[in-house]
Amino acid sequence: MPPVNPYNKYIKQYQTSNITTATPEKLMILLFDGALQFLQKAKAAIQENNLQERSANIDGARKIIRELMRTIDLENGNDVAKHLFRLYNRMAMNLIKANVQRNITLIDDVINDLTNIRWGFQKAIEIKNGITTVEEAMRESGGNESIQHPILREDNNDAG
Questions:
Q1: What dihedral angle (degrees, nearest 10) is formed by the CA atoms of 93, 97, 100, 102?
Q2: Domain containing 37: what range?
Q3: Of 16, 119, 149, 157, which has the most beta carbons under 10 Å away?
Q4: What is the pLDDT confidence band of residue 16, given thresholds at 50, 70 and 90?
Q5: pLDDT tens-digit map of 40-86
């Protein structure tokens, strides 16, 4: 058993304070970060053949994705909202498959999509706060081949 960090109490207090004082936008970013952390731990658990850790971490990420789905206003949203909802649903279904199949590739696909969506939300926040412009974000996106715009990508697996 690893030694207990004497600063754990203060770290927990900081994390709680960070969450309770966060803006709704920052909470969205924290949700993405949490899901990505769960998925990295799930990949490690698969490699270590640790069934309990694998399942717990995949389930944690799936719960966050379901929470992200609940934030979408489908009644008043546009096509992007509907595509995003389907994408989140596909990710959640892929995580169920990844858990059963012990499939790191499916987890990597979800990590890639979550990372790209997180990037988009982060840029939207920066534009809203005057930190960057739409033009700068578009240039950054165009220059980064890893940004694949998963919401706009047609995918045959939308139904799960």
A1: -130
A2: 23-143
A3: 119
A4: low
A5: 999 999 999 999 999 999 999 999 999 999 999 999 888 999 999 99
CATH number at residue 105: 1.20.120.340
How many structural domains comprise the chain? 1
Q: pTM of the prediction?
A: 0.76
**Closest C-alpha to 153, from 116, 125, 126:** 116
